[in-house]
Amino acid sequence: MLASQGARLRAMIDEDVDALSDLLADDLHYSHTRGSVESKAQFLSTIQSKRIDYLVATPKDVKVRLFGETAVITGLSDMKLIYLGEQFDFTIRFLEVSHKVNTNWQLVAWQSVRYDPD
């Protein structure tokens, strides 16, 4: 499961939309830290256009809970990205839901908020 998460993050950073497409469910619900929600097609377009250019994504304190063919993953991630030309460095708390299709995991839902330890 975590290998699939790592592959997805690498594909986002590498802007590899072909690899990323295989790692995302067709009915993806991707909610960004600012509250906007994107479908799979919209998220792939965001990556391809570099509207958001992911530079670094370093998960930590990750916990995986399996429910049959569904995984719920929670944790923190240090992020570095360029959004509309401006660079941001911050930490997020995320909730990720993935589902196993044949032998591969696909991201079904993502929700993240900025994390401030204070």
Describe this structure in words.
The structure is a single chain. With 118 residues, the protein is an alpha+beta fold. It contains three helices and six strands.
**Overall 3D shape:** globular
Helix content: 25-40%
Percent strand: over 45%
Mean of all residue-level pLDDT scores: 96
Structural class: alpha+beta
Rg from alpha-carbon coordinates: 13 Å
Largest sheet features: 6 strands, mixed
Order of helices and strands: HHEEHEEEE
Tally the helices: what do you get? 3
Number of β-strand runs: 6
Instruction: Trace the largest sheet across and list its strands.
Output: 2-1-6-5-4-3
Distance between the termini: 31 Å
Low-confidence stretches: none
Key traits:
single chain, 118 residues, alpha+beta, 6-stranded mixed beta sheet, 25% helix, globular
Summed up:
By secondary structure, the protein is an alpha+beta fold. It is built from three helices and six strands, in the order ααββαββββ. Helix 1 packs antiparallel against helix 2.
Write the layout of secondary structure elements.
Elements: H1 2-14, H2 17-23, E1 24-31, E2 37-38, H3 40-49, E3 52-67, E4 70-83, E5 86-101, E6 104-114
Parallel strand pairs: 1-6
Antiparallel strand pairs: 1-2, 3-4, 4-5, 5-6
Helix pairs in contact: 1-2
